[in-house]
Amino acid sequence: MKKSFKAYAVQFETVTGKFERNYSRFLTFLNLCEKGSLVVIPEVFLTGFYYEDIESAARFSERIVSELLEFSKGLELTLVYTVIEKINNKFFNSVQVIDKGRLLLSRPKIKLFAPMDEDKYFVAGSEKDLKLVETSIGVIAPVICFELRFSEIFLELLKNGAEIFTVSAQWGKARKEHWKVLTSARAIETQRFLVASNGIGEMAGNSIIVDPWGRILSSAGESEGIISGRIDLSVIKQVERKLPMGR
Questions:
Q1: Taking a C-beta distance cutoff of 8 angstroms, is the pair 211, 193 a contact?
Q2: How far is CA 133 from CA 102, 162, 164, 190, in A?
Q3: What string of DSSP letters covers 123-147?
């Protein structure tokens, strides 16, 4: 397991229903990522919340995941993102973690966001679906958008050994200040790294990478782009020694 590596958060506008266009924009940024790094990508980045034809969104996502596996293997990347997934005739907003060409984790979003009609089209996961995964770069605990508001999710994943929290989101502009406060707060309260990737356009942007002290290693505004920061996992032990939480 690597103790120090580069992490990226990709930030671009996902245009709902424009599958190939979205995929092409993403690939532009993937080509900028250093070999052996972590890349966190916005929620439903390929399709958006394409409820008009959710079936085609799920089919496209499934096809592209096989390509992402190949990119991940060739570039030795760890990728975190969400896609619309169809299982047993039910649809899920699933976060997936790919590590060097292997799909290590896929779990459904637990906290669906009703104002975006997620509860009408997706089946929610349950607490037992909450998982983390040991990758070649560390133990990753992936979180999806609205779940950022629930500290109990983070504390449960922390208890199970999380080292790096990732957040894949389409977080709206109206709640931008909530996003900025909560991303830093979750890193501080868990004393862990957090890499959060958000969309732009109607979304708030402000993707961010935060260390266990709450220091911002890199942050974005509301423009398209990619941010990066170096993650050194030894910092976790330093923080725990200097500020023991008695957990």
A1: yes
A2: 12, 8, 10, 17
A3: PPP-GGG---EE-SS-EEEEEEGGG
Residue range 120-140: average pLDDT?
97
Residue 1 has pLDDT above 70, yes or no: no
| Phi, psi for 67 (deg, rounded to 5) | -75, -40
Phi and psi based region of residue 101 (left: phi greater than 0; alpha: psi -120 to 50; beta: remaining): left
Q: What is the pTM of this model?
A: 0.97
DSSP SS3 for 38: strand
Q: In sequence order, what DSSP letters do the residues of 67-78 get, joined into one string? A: HHHHHHHHHT-E
User: Is residue 93 predicted with pLDDT exceeding 80?
Assistant: yes
Mean pLDDT, range 185-198, rounded to an integer = 98
Structure tokens belonging to residue 131: 């998982």
Q: State the DSSP H helix or E strand holding residue 80, giving kind and residue range, or none if neither.
A: strand 78-87
Confidence class for position 2, pLDDT limits 50, 70, 90: low
Burial 16-51 (b: 16+ CB within 10 A, else e): bbbbeebbebbeebbeebeeebbbbbbbbbbbbbbb
How far is 16 from 49, CA to CA, in rounded Å?
6
Under a CB-based contact definition with an 8 Å cutoff, are residues 82 and 113 in contact? no
Q: Which helix (H) or strand (E) holds 40?
A: strand 38-40
Handedness of CA 195, 23, 136, 149 (dihedral sign): positive
